[in-house]
Write a structure and sequence with these properties.
By secondary structure, this protein is of the alpha/beta class. The chain contains 7 helices and 7 strands.
């Protein structure tokens, strides 16, 4: 993307209707990119777009419903991006879910849903986005992982498996795609104060990362000089709670 005017650049954020994805979409719009978002339902996408347009009146936004688990939906999402914006420069694979229970109690369908959403979804989106990015001379793919991708915890068999896998996928696809001008990086946040993070039962969220902290990392990544790839960022709260 050397020399490209930032006003011409287009980003797609999966799971961009709330939480980290919403913060990333908002930040990239402030950075001057046109932004497409996806969510699982037309209703959630509509609500997300309404909030984004209210918070960034100068931004250019569009949205499309797509299930990260479905190959067809992700193919259609990338096709919609091309039809709507004409190009794709930044893909942020953010859509994700979590199910937490002991491995002997976790229902197989719940395990499958987590892995298919958190790992298959980024594969599908990356697989279909790469040819579109190549048309414009390159691009940047950011996978929103988790420190749970390097640190296992009890009750996290599905989530850990999906995030460990996502890190491996991210590093391998980085090696596959960099000769074509497509850079790939993973952001691994620790505890983030979102609706998702609150499901773990913690009562004090003040020490956690903000979704805006993750959005800042994404913004920094895509502005990195073209000659270099910061392929992984571990993001931790600077002042965790005292034990």
């Amino acid at each position: 993307m050397p020399g490209m005017d930032t006003r011409e650049r287009v980003a797609l954020v999966t799971g961009g209707t709330r939480g980290i994805g919403f913060a990333v979409a908002r930040r990239l719009a402030h950075d001057g990119l046109a932004v497409g978002i996806s969510g699982r339902s037309p209703e959630s996408v509509g609500e997300g777009l309404e909030r984004l347009r209210k918070e960034v009146p100068s931004g250019r936004f569009a949205g499309h419903s797509a299930d990260a688990r479905r190959e067809h939906d992700q193919r259609a999402l990338i096709a919609w991006t091309e039809e709507t914006f004409g190009r794709l420069d930044v893909l942020v694979n953010n859509a994700g879910i979590g199910e937490f229970a002991s491995v002997e109690e976790l229902d197989p369908e719940r395990f499958r849903a987590v892995v298919e959403t958190n790992l298959f979804g980024p594969f599908y989106a990356t697989r279909f986005a790469a040819p579109l990015m190549k048309k414009s001379g390159g691009g940047f793919i950011v996978n929103i992982g988790s420190l749970a991708g390097v640190n296992a915890f009890a009750g996290g068999s599905a989530y850990n498996a999906s995030k460990f896998g996502l890190l491996g996928f991210s590093e391998s696809s980085m090696l596959d795609l960099r000769p074509q001008g497509i850079r790939v990086a993973a952001v691994l946040p620790g505890s983030v104060a979102t609706e998702f993070g609150h499901s773990h039962g913690s009562r004090d969220y003040s020490w956690m990362l903000s979704p805006d902290d993750v959005a800042e990392a994404v913004s920094d990544l895509i502005r990195f000089p073209d000659r270099a790839i910061a392929s992984r960022i571990d993001l931790r709260p600077s002042r965790p709670p005292k034990r």
